[in-house]
């Protein structure tokens, strides 16, 4: 980004930076006032062509500052409300080690089952489940019609279910250490 300045903007900043800073300081903290003045003069720079000249420039800048400070207050209020909502949520205990092991095992088993699928089925499932694409987006991505994606995705899910079930039936899945020996893995 070039460091080119505009003499008109430089003059406006020179004349009005202090009164706008004082205006902001009377309405908010020093940190927020500095953020506000930066935003005010960013707006002034972007809208230099729209900015009134002469005696009307300062009131225009006050109007910009008023809106900037209003936005800051709304953002602060939203943050406080969000913090209050988060604080009011019930605190749940983290899952126990055994639960984590089982969840991880189930995840790994699904991954193993997915790896056993045909590449086309695997790609379609991954685009849907892990990438979060809609059927229309998958159709666009893979070059199929929407109807074809609907059918192929339904069939891929059925194949995945059969593969997952077969891994358990034949014992080809790898059980977690803590459950493989019927205890804590010791």
Describe, in plain words, how this protein is organized in 3D:
With 186 residues, this protein is mainly alpha-helical. Helix content is 73%, strand content 0%. The protein folds into 2 domains: 7-88, RNA polymerase sigma factor, region 2, helix turn helix motif (Rna Polymerase Sigma Factor, Chain: A); 97-180, Winged helix-like DNA-binding domain superfamily/Winged helix DNA-binding domain (Arc Repressor Mutant, subunit A). Helix 1 packs antiparallel against helix 2 and helix 5 (119-130) packs across helix 7. It is elongated. The N and C termini lie far apart (62 Å).
Summarize the structure.
By secondary structure, the protein is mainly α. The protein has helices spanning 7-25, 30-46, 57-88, 97-115, 119-130, 135-142, 146-170, 177-180.
Largest sheet report: none
Q: Indicate the proportion of strand residues.
A: under 5%
The CATH topology annotation of the largest domain reads as Arc Repressor Mutant, subunit A
Structural class based on helices, strands and sheet pairing:
mainly alpha
